[in-house]
Amino acid sequence: MNTTFRTLSLVGLLILAACAGFQEGYPPATNPFLAGAPSLETVKLPPTRVALIWLEPAGTPAPVTAQRALAEKIKNQFLTGKRLEIVGAATIPAVPGDVLSEVRKTAQPFNVQQVLVVMPRGTEVTTPVRLQYGRDGSAIGTRTDSYTSLTLVGVDLASGKSLYSLVANGDARLLKTDYEDARPWYPRISPGLTSSAYIYPERSVFPPGEVHAVALEQAVNKLIYELGRAVGS
């Protein structure tokens, strides 16, 4: 982050919306194994060896590469020696049909009796805004608020029974000018809608879906925290 961007972030960013604001709206959690799964807070887990299976929803805004990296991030927080040991992670498309059979097939190489099935769900709202930068900078642009619900369900592979569940939410905000070249005001993402910590992607390397990936990572960070707290690791 260069000096210009540090200065801008310290000065602050004032957003004057051109239309009425809206309430935060995390989408309802979704997971084919969620129904009937008790909250992890009510379950006492013994030391457990599991695999993590991440279901990639069709048409999800977050890039598939980001989802796969985040599945590995969860796994790497629960390695050998932890009360909850995740021995491997894999991602599969969340397609209609017999999901349990696909999960069993994917988990087979890991030689486990239980899996953690993780599935994200995202939504976004975009509104026009007038952006004020520091004392004199001004631009017309858009604000995109991205919300993610991330659901984890522990599943017994033999019976297909859902053992416990955990839901974590994440959000991010993208502020972007309408101008093709508005230097030094590149697109900026705030991890968390009220966060003052900004990411300043260069326009030339600003990939589609980046704001969704940031919101999803926020949800993953919360899931790791809550899961670790629940299992005492």
Estimated share of beta-strand residues: 35-45%
Main sheet attributes: strand count, strand direction, barrel closure: 7 strands, mixed
Can you count the helices?
4
Shape: elongated
Number of strands: 7
**Mind telling me the C-alpha Rg?**
20 Å
Helix content: 10-25%
- Assembly context of the chains: single chain
Arithmetic mean pLDDT: 84
Terminal CA distance: 34 Å
Specify the structural class: alpha/beta
Low-confidence stretches: 1-22
| SSE sequence, one letter per element | HEEHEHEEEEH
Description:
With 233 residues, this protein is of the alpha/beta class. It is 22% helix and 37% strand. It contains four helices and seven strands. Strands 1, 2, 3, 4, 5, 6 and 7 form a seven-stranded mixed sheet that branches. A hairpin with a 5-residue loop joins strand 5 and strand 6. Helix 2 runs parallel beside helix 4. Mean pLDDT is 84; it is low at 1-22.
